[in-house]
Amino acid sequence: MENWQVQKLPTGTPGRYCRKNSIIGATMDACVQSPEGYPYALVTSGVEKGNLRELALARMEDLGLKCRDVRTREAGIQDIHNKIKPEEVELVRREYAANEGWETFLSYEDTRQDILVGLLRLRKCGRNVTCPELVGRCSIVRELHVYGTAVPVHGREADKLQHQGYGTLLMEEAERIARREHRSTKLAVISGVGTRHYYRKLGYELEGPYMVKCLV
């Protein structure tokens, strides 16, 4: 541990794992980023570069690999950089085991153009939960995002993806999976203060730090 604390990580290290990470789980993750807000000349341990994503993408290009992480595929980025918009959007489901629980990654995508419209991360809680709100037959929505150009609250624009109902559809599918497949009696959501009203409209109530809905 002492050696790690006083040594900087080699800048080339992230690039060594590009090939593996571009194949395993890339469609559900965001390519590595680095914290901002402090001068890297003062860094004494850990990563010494502030542009890890740029370096990783450059290394992938050298290896002939295409980055398919969340940020690269999201609709707004595709519109800005490639001037393409999603046309045929469909629900996609991916699943995997993690930390004694079961994760379901739901997304709305244009699979032909590889454009990500929105995503939801649903987890069937394992036995190792410590938060009292999650104990028992409970599932949790860890993340919900709909991508594209920002639209004001209560606003709607036909040519933009936000506020078109994708978030509600993802939540409805998450509730169906939690109820019928997980056999959960309630669904909790990790929600910031600003989005609690949205979940209240979907029937959720504040319980501790979570927005929670009874499924029975």
Automatic annotation (TrEMBL):
Keywords: 4Fe-4S, Acyltransferase, Iron, Iron-sulfur, Metal-binding, RNA-binding, S-adenosyl-L-methionine, Transferase, tRNA processing, tRNA-binding. Pathway: tRNA modification; 5-methoxycarbonylmethyl-2-thiouridine-tRNA biosynthesis. Gene3D superfamilies: 3.40.630.30. The keyword Transferase applies. The keyword Protein transport does not apply. GO terms for biological process: tRNA wobble base 5-methoxycarbonylmethyl-2-thiouridinylation. InterPro entries: Acyl_CoA_acyltransferase (IPR016181), ELP3 (IPR039661), GNAT_dom (IPR000182). Its EC number is 2.3.1.311. It catalyses: uridine(34) in tRNA + acetyl-CoA + S-adenosyl-L-methionine + H2O = 5-(carboxymethyl)uridine(34) in tRNA + 5'-deoxyadenosine + L-methionine + CoA + 2 H(+). One of its GO terms (molecular function) is metal ion binding. GO terms for cellular component: cytoplasm; elongator holoenzyme complex; nucleus. Residues 65-216 form the N-acetyltransferase domain. Pfam families: Acetyltransf_1. This is Elongator complex protein 3. It comes from Ananas comosus var. bracteatus. The lineage of its organism: Eukaryota, Viridiplantae, Streptophyta, Embryophyta, Tracheophyta.
